[in-house]
Amino acid sequence: MSKIYLSYLLDENTPTYSNRNIFKIEKKASIIKGDVANDSFIQTTVHIGTHIDMPYHFYDNGQTIENFDCKDFNFKNILFLEIKSKELIIKDELIEKLEQIKNKKDFDLLLVKTGICHKRDEEVFWKENYGFHPSIADYLREKFSNVRVFGFDSISVSSFAHRMIGREAHKAFLNPIKPILLLEDMDLRDVNEQKTINEVFIAPIRIKKCDGLPCTVIADIER
Length: 223
Hints:
- The chain has helices spanning 92-99, 124-127, 135-143, 163-174, and strands at residues 2-5, 24-29, 39-43, 51-53, 74-75, 78-82, 89-90, 109-113, 131-132, 149-152, 181-184, 196-204, 212-222.
- It is an alpha/beta fold and 223 residues long.
- It has one domain (2-13, 45-222): 3-Layer(bba) Sandwich (Glucose Oxidase, domain 1), CATH 3.50.30.50.
């Protein structure tokens, strides 16, 4: 057994959806400049790096972090799949793989690796990212009814090249009636279908009444 991070460090090179936002960090106090201590100030969107979308992101009456307990972010029944998609909107390839899974109601976390995590330092990562079709949300609610979070290595559930479908996908997954939270931009470079993920811990920054939350994600994996 070993524990690894499935989340990225945040820095000023962190890519963002449409590349319109950047992470800024500035020292307000510095030991080198004679101050007593180092003190840093950050400026950022909450939808950056490995982060989780709350239903409030697309619904004014949607849940925020206050509506979830610690146990809601601990997962012991993880389904990990790898998808090689020919299209930017993933649908049939994923559903076909999900159909082959037995004991569908046993899983509480679905993780999908598209492989785009290996291109995170390239423009294609945000400009031609994979998205997921809205119908997958309904499929999961029907067949994998205990899945609470859907995580993946793409920068967003919305493909930048197909933003209208992406908006519908956000709404479909985050529907407050039975939300499936979206864990976007995961670091899945060191995991594959040959490795068993025994447990996953998601630790969102707990910002009150917020639509998205940067996360630290830790996995317990059999080597």
